[in-house]
Prior knowledge:
- The complex is a heterodimer.
- Chain A has helices spanning 11-20, 26-36, 45-57, 81-106, and strands at residues 24-25, 61-67, 73-79.
- Chain A is an alpha+beta fold.
Amino acid sequence: MNFSSVMPGTLDLLVLKSLSLGREHGYGILLRIQRASQDILQVEQGALYPALARLEAQGLISAEWGLSENNRRAKFYELTREGKARLRSDVQDWRRFAGALEQVLNTQSLSALS
Amino acid sequence: MIARFWQTLMRLWQRRRYEQDLQAELEFHWQCRVDDLLAQGLTRSDAERQARLELGMLEIHRDDVRAAHGLAFADRWWGDLCRAARGLAATPWFALSAAVVLGLAIGINLILHGLWQNYLATPPALSREGQLFDLDLRGAAGRFVPPLSGVEIETLKEQLQAVDVAVVYSHQSNQILQSAPPRMIYGASVGPDYFRLLRHQMLQGRSFVAADFAASAPVALISARLWHRLPEAPQRLPVSLQLGGQRFQVIGVVADDFAGLEPFPPQFFLTDHQEASLLQAQGKTEPPRFATSLLLPPGLDPESVRSMLRGWLAALPRNQLIDERVAEVQLLPRTAQLSAAESRDAGAFLTPIVLFTLLLLIAACANVGNLMLARVSLRQQELAVRASLGATRWQLIRLLMLESLLLALMAGAIGVLFTSLALDPIHRYGMSMLVAIGIEPLPMHVDWSLLPWMLLQALVACLGFGLLPALCLTTGDLAQASRRDSGLWQGRIPAARLRGWLMSAQVAVSLVLLVTAALIIDLTRKSRDLQIGYPIEQLVDLRHPAPDQALRTRIAAVPGVLATASTGNSPLYGFVPRQLVQVDGRSLQLGIQQIDPEYLSALSLPILLGRNFTEAEATQEQPVALISARTADLLWPGQSPLDRQVTLLDTDANGLETRRQVSIIGVVPSVVSGLPVSGVDASMIYLPGALGQPAMRDLLVRVDARAGDALLAALAEACSAGPQAQLCQPWRLSDMVSVYRLPMVVASHLAAGLGLLSLLISGFGLFGVIRFQVHARWREFGIRMALGAAPRSVISLVLWQALRQLRAGLVIGLLLCLGLSAVLSSMLGVGRAFPMLAYLGVPMLLMLMALASASWPAWRATRLSALDALREQ
């Protein structure tokens, strides 16, 4: 299965989740998402930075310049307290949504709806 | 929200660094990806190419990041602002004309606002919580009654003590300061609570304390200005000061800006008791009366205090006197440096000026609106191209409105510059009439509180003249827009017609302003040309508090003195007192003046008929009278007035009527005895009197025509040389006339200034509009010239077009002026308010201005080649 991009509206959730594992720069976040989804989810690389800027403007993540593992100057992002709270609520919402979707997809016959 | 806004501001502030960081972050991403691709076995060039492709359109991502950080909004506005600035810079003549026209009008309004704020908007600062009210006493039918005396205020204080109301009172006092030369200065005598309750700053020494009001030692506070002028200034306090003929010990120096409850900052302050004794020493029998204000504690209802005051006033002894009986008391909130009554008077004075400046602003707005319309008509093609390239209507309106806003800000800046340069000179000039009576208004400066007012005016002007053309222009189709000057709002409003209306409005307003200015100047000129009837340059009013025979002898001995005369009222010194008389059964109000036998010769007034008073008639106040020639014509036209009887009816303070019959013994010429503006006396009865009688309060001195100021100093010295040394301030009647004429002169100069400004605004406006109109016909003129049209015909075409702009405006303006003149002439007398020069001269002036404004665009039109004209399109 191959997605050209993640579902609209879910990129923010994915970024928050990947940052919940620890501070990381933009490219690292991209790799984390791809590895965690076993390369099923393909994030459009350029679209990641507007999402990071949006989350930063909302105060859900904070950014700081530092040195990367290959000794290059990189901008590292970190989850804020508000970001952690948002991640918890978004994960709950997503699971409820996914469960509901699963139930709909598992519906076998009309009698099951009555 | 605030934090987010702050972060956006910081990013804007550090924009370069922000862009560098954004670039560095994307660069880092790209390099990491290149490294990974190299590790997968790609060549460097393939890896770099692949990484670049995966990253996508970098500039779009950058824009998205900027938008997420809230910078796209600022970028959009900044871009529009730059485009608007470029748009204005592309038409510098338009920008300059519009900004100057509007800036001058805003400047005049700012000056007026500054004056209003100084005198009518800032209440005195209090050092205790509460609200200040002015006590306003009125007689029957709203008649003026004298304010409270010191004794009455003492009982008022006792009355109001129970409700914790403080009584603040003062009396404005003009006293002569013994200096070289002696001069009159303006001050105030105050009650004990004045300095206790009004916030003030002492620069040296101390303020008044309760003991100063009880002690008999004369003490005074002076302003810093007066302190620095004293020879003792470098010394320490206390110093002494001779004021009004009495020596005072100065115990403190007050900051210059402290005006207390007075309209202007006083130069000295005395205690109320000292003022009373000073007036007594100067021979004035009446005790001083005080302007009184009440400081009510918070929560106390003014109405309850007012009803208390009604009861208290009803029991006052003053009610036995008709002239002093109080019928109504009011508590008027003190909202300005001027008292409530003074504010009312000042408002009446300022209203015509406000109307004048408002008209000026309207003319300027009409002018700029016209310029804007002319300009947007020329820009229709440009905007159509912008629209075809994808600009929305809102973006076009925003662009045009930003241009208007920039223009309005430029105009505001010019207005502020003009105000800062002109405010103090205009204030000083307007108040110069007060300097003669010792009042020195403080310098005025532009303060930042004027800025919101300026911005408001600029914003209103911007919306007023920018929004309509912007809305009109953007409501059209491209095909229509490609036709120049076709019409606005989808052709419903012909642009040329709208511009014609605005031009008419502007010309009409300018005409009204200029003719009004000409009317005021004409009235001033007539007042200057008025023949007083006696040599005012040679007559000196001694202004001595209590002249007597000994003083007269000393004065007569001064070299250069030709004659002395005494009178009850010095001529030209206020309104002529009026007397109710009965003549042949008719009751009339006639002017009256008491004079001694030397008065007529001192004034070089011949006896036209009959004879002068004798010494005996004067000393015994015998029942004889002289009358002026006009009075003789009024009472007995065509007959001899000699030996006729006139009955003088007097009513004393208790309302008792007395009658006195006098016989006419002579007729003298009619002269100006009252204020110069009142003109020659309509009537005058002269009664005999002699120096030493209580009513004979003034001594006039006839001096040599060649006498200079040295003679005035010698007269002042002769005043103070007697056994009971008293100061006087000799003043030529010609100086007095100048002071009285000064308000008219100031008014005429202000009117002339405003008229000139209006002319300037009209000139700039006409120039801008005609230049644009000529520019709109550039192609036509180019083709005419190419086809062999003579330059003269093109010039006459442009000039005629300029004159046609004025037609409707001149007609409307002249009709308005006729109405204005009719109102003025009903107030001042028929014929005085119709100066032909103004009615012919001002329209001619406006026409000349239009021709002058059109001459340069016309000349440019003759220099056009067909190629240039076509290229211009």
